[in-house]
Amino acid sequence: MGRIALAVGAVAAIVYPIPLQIQGTTYYQTVGFLVLLNAMLGVGWNVIGGWTGQFDFGPQVFFAVGAYTAALLYVKLGVDAWLGLPVAVGAAALICAVLTYPLTRLRGHYFAISTVAIWMIAQPIGSTWEYIGAAQGLFIPVKAHAGVVGSALSLQFSGPTKALGYYYAALVLFAATLALMAWVERSKLGFYFRAIRDDQEAAEGIGIDSRLYKVIARSLTAAVFGGAGVLYAFWALSVFPEQALELNWSTLPIMATVVGGIGRLWGPVLGAAILIPISQIMSTTLGTGPLAGRGIDLIVYGLIIVVIAAFRPTGLLSLPWARWFRRRSATS
Amino acid sequence: MTELAQAVVNGLQMGFLYALVAVGLTIIWGLMEMINFAHGEFLMLGMFGAWWLSASFRLDPLLAILPIALVMFAFGMLVYQQLMRRVQGGDPFTQIFATIGLLFLLQNAVVAGFTSDYRFVNDTLLQRLGGARLTVLGITFAVPLLLAAGLALLLFLALYLLIERTEFGLALQATSEDRDAARLVGIRPQRMFAVAWGLGAALVAIAGAILVNFFSVYPQVGLPFTVLAYAIVALGGFGSILGTLLAALLVGVIQSVTVVYLPPAFKDAFVFGSYLLIGLLRPQGLFGRF
Fold first, then answer.
1. E strand segments, chain A
2. B170: number of Cβ within 10 Å
3. What pairing do the DSSP bridges indicate for beta strands A138-139 and B139-142?
4. Do B35 and A296 make contact, defined as CB atoms within 8 angstroms?
5. Which among A167, A287, B70, B89 is most buried, taking Cβ atoms within 10 Å?
6. pLDDT tens for each residue of B116-139
7. What is the pTM of this model?
8. Are the beta carbons of A92 and A69 closer than 8 angstroms?
9. Nearest-CA distance from B113 to chain A in Å?
10. Where are the domains of chain B?
11. CA distances (Å), origin A106, targets B104, B276, B281
12. Do the chains contact at B271 and A120, CB–CB below 8 Å?
């Protein structure tokens, strides 16, 4: 059952943009790109927030670390994005580990505020550091590439295939993240994370070093954010502090995780597939009308989150879908 | 030297305003140990209320304090009874998400109703004193800010007496320490929580009505204050009213002294740097008892 659903989902994700591309529209490929990007971030956030139970409000710092690292390598040294990607992911994970280890002395609310603190400190550094372009940031020039292969190898798509190219690039990174986290979930690491969440003292009692594993969990989250940052930087063709350190890079994935089901591997994926199109579709339907740009999509987000938190805090995936389906097939 | 002393004085004056914003959070978060990420949105509602009363009825923000406080008290109780009561028993993360949802809802409902434009409340009683300055030993005090600081002190004193010296305050403390034991001695915990939310919302809305004399009003004004208020309450030590006041003053001073030496962008970075430093060296906060 699970395997079939996975195969159907994978085929649907791969085929989805093709008829659109033939029709000549590119809009829904971009929506798909944003869904995959936020789903990937949510799957990453789930490690520290869902499995390890630590409220991390500052993962966007590592999104920025990834984006800046790859952009700097490309702009200053001419290193292509795919080569820059592992360096950026490594830098995000390493910087996260160094910053997070002292923070793990704090627990609960205090830890959560300390992650915000790191973000608050990162912002003026980003906007005043001349080497990384200060408030202006870095611009990523588009190079001319020979054909599809050249574009794919350098992660630089342009023209009418830009949206399609980045959609598939996001799909690749998303699938890699999902596969990694599916493995982590069933590995010893995953059990340690959940043991710390459920009862830190008991976990320490059986010899789990809670500080070490919190650092590992947050570094895994940071690695995912760093990777997504690289992709986003090359899509946006620029990195600047207000964009890369934007609060939305944590609130949207967190909301997606909660809506879909916190602590469940597929939770953020379902959440992102619901939330991101709402915003995109609303901005097209409202167009330039009187309610355009009035945050109607965010009102809907707020309502969804409030209702889920009040009535089903474990998320949509935790609803008894299997039972409902069985009943329907039994009655029909 | 005078420049530094002036910066400290300016910081103290700002600190009193921050204290006003943080004190409502001391009750909801510090005392009752419930998370409210929409705290800044309550502040924003208070500021919008003051702006609206001033624009429609030419009511001075200082006189608007009473109606705003009453309405927001009812609103805070409503939020508890309709939303927070449901999520109170569950995982702590549901409180965080419920109030993040509330944040989005309130902020963007105001955007939908009033747009994101910046608004100003002009010609208020406090602003008419705008030119008035007191100069002592070469250090300038702005009279409107001094008056606002006086108001903040009064409010703190009233709250301190309410929490520490009245039967109601003791019941509130008892509820926060042990709900079941409180119920056994005849306190109704849910009512206590509802009143605490009402009180917290009313206090931060009063802060909003005072803040409109000095800050512009727009729907997104709340979040930076929320973030600062959390740092202040944590710095001061959970639930300590005096600690909150002193931490708020400290935060104001850190900000204004930072700006003397570094670009203004760094002022919050140093506040949060201090939070990290103090948090790591003294996890119970500056004035926490445990």
1. 138-139, 238-239
2. 13
3. unpaired
4. no
5. A167
6. 888 888 777 777 766 666 677 767
7. 0.90
8. yes
9. 8
10. 2-281
11. 28, 10, 10
12. yes
Q: Do B263 and A124 touch (CB under 8 A)?
A: yes
Query: For residue A4, how many other CB atoms are within 10 A of its CB?
Result: 8
Backbone angles phi, psi at A235, to 5 degrees: -70, -45
Which alpha helices (DSSP H) does A104-187 contain, by range? 109-128, 147-154, 162-186
A321: tokens are 């879908």
How far apart CA A143 and CA A157 sit, in angstroms, is: 9
Domain range summary for chain A, segments of one domain joined by +: 17-247
Do B283 and A313 lie within an 8 Å CB cutoff? Answer: no
For residue B104, give the nearest of A53, A103, A298 by CB distance: A298
What does the pLDDT look like over B79-108, one tens digit per residue? 999 899 888 877 778 888 899 899 999 999
Q: What is the dotted CATH code of the domain comprising B2-281? A: 1.10.3470
User: Tokens 């800044």 appear where?
Assistant: B40
Which candidate from B83, B230, B266 shows the least CB-CB separation from A306? Answer: B83
Distance from CA of B231 to the nearest CA of A (A): 7
Judging by DSSP bridges, how do beta strands B139-142 and B133-136 pair with one another?
antiparallel
Measured distance CA(B151)–CA(B159) in Å, rounded: 12
Mutation target for A interface from B44, B102, B276, B277: give the one with most A CBs within 10 A: B276
| Best to test chain A binding among B33, B41, B105, B255 (most A CBs inside 10 Å) | B105
Q: Report in angstroms the alpha-carbon separations of B85 from A278, B101, B191.
A: 29, 15, 10
Specify whether the CB–CB gap between A252 and A57 falls below 8 A: no
Does B278 reach chain A within 8 Å, measured CB to CB?
A: no
Asked if pLDDT for residue B290 goes beyond 60, the answer is: no
Best B34, B108, B255 residue to mutate vs chain A (most A CBs within 10 Å):
B108
Interface residue A187 vs chain B (CB under 8 A): no
**How much is the ipTM here?**
0.85
Residue B221: CB partners within 8 Å, gap ≥ 6?
A: B40, B43, B44, B47, B215
Whether residue A110 and residue B96 make contact (CB cut-off 8 A), yes or no, is no
